[in-house]
Amino acid sequence: MLFRSLTAVFFFTLAFWGNSAEAIPRRKSSAATSTTTQATAQQQAAQISGGISTATDGSTILDQTVTVNDLNLRPKVSAPADQFTTLSGVTGAATKPNTTGVMGLNVLLHGDGGQSFFYFPNQAVQANLMGVVVLAPDPNLFWGGGSGLQRTDGVAHAQAVNDLILNAMPNVISFNSSQVFFTGVSGGSLLLSGFFIPAQMTNFKGTGVLLNCGGLVPQVTFQDADAVVASTTIHFQSTQSEPAPLQPAILSAIAAYENLATAAGLSIDRINALQTLNNAPKGGHCEFDGKGFSSGIQVMANAFSNVIQLGGNGQVNGIGDVLTGVVGNEKLTFSGAT
């Protein structure tokens, strides 16, 4: 029943925003900033309380809201029941709080409006990584707040995600903090590339980030840049018809991260092993299957370990091998714009 309730909220959210294209990073409308009684996307999502449900692979999903740095974050964690702590309230929980586990995490930050939070595409355990998705602490459900490519709350949101993982989540789930990977979707990719990787990835070195249909050059001072870029896999995945404002932003982000790797002294072969790109799919924004936004994101989520974890074969269903090294391939061409 809980899964059906969350699905109902998702479709209510789509009705409020108009359609799935609203997952494109966009500017706030006058309605979003006016003093009307229209419920915000965040208020609509809050109408359904969190709880416990079952994931597609039989794992347990825990959905709850926690306060981090005075921001209300709503993480959903999907994991085998015995990996939850005795404080979680999950039946079958078997570990003590703040216990290091044997499994890692794949933390997904959704696009504008929260569509991927409700669908939770990374909920199935994959290659020893448990799934996490976090709802943005913003009235419009924009990661980084602001609008368009201007994410005015990016610093605070990136810090909150970091502190959620390192300080709050160990109370409810046991995981290996040296195996925390990340997935961005559209606006979530803007936060990860623009703010989180440069400011917080020093705490998660040796893992990787999948940047779907979005990218920004680092917007803040890069902490421990040489060590981060030398140990982090980053894949930029887009389509042939991303929105016009996103196309140059993605290209600039690719060039910026490659330049950081070059400055760190990495060889071309090493850079190409760590930083890869692909924009072969012919769909619109995030439509990696050529059919739809959510189904496209699901295709990439299903192939996460192939694409991001070192040694993966790069194979994505319907696309093929997406692991093209960035060096010499930075100037992606797009055939259109949605």
UniProtKB/TrEMBL annotation:
Q: Which UniProt keywords apply?
A: Signal
Question: Span of the secretion signal?
Answer: 1-23
Tell me the organism: Glonium stellatum
Query: What name has this protein been given in UniProt?
Result: Cyclin-like f-box protein
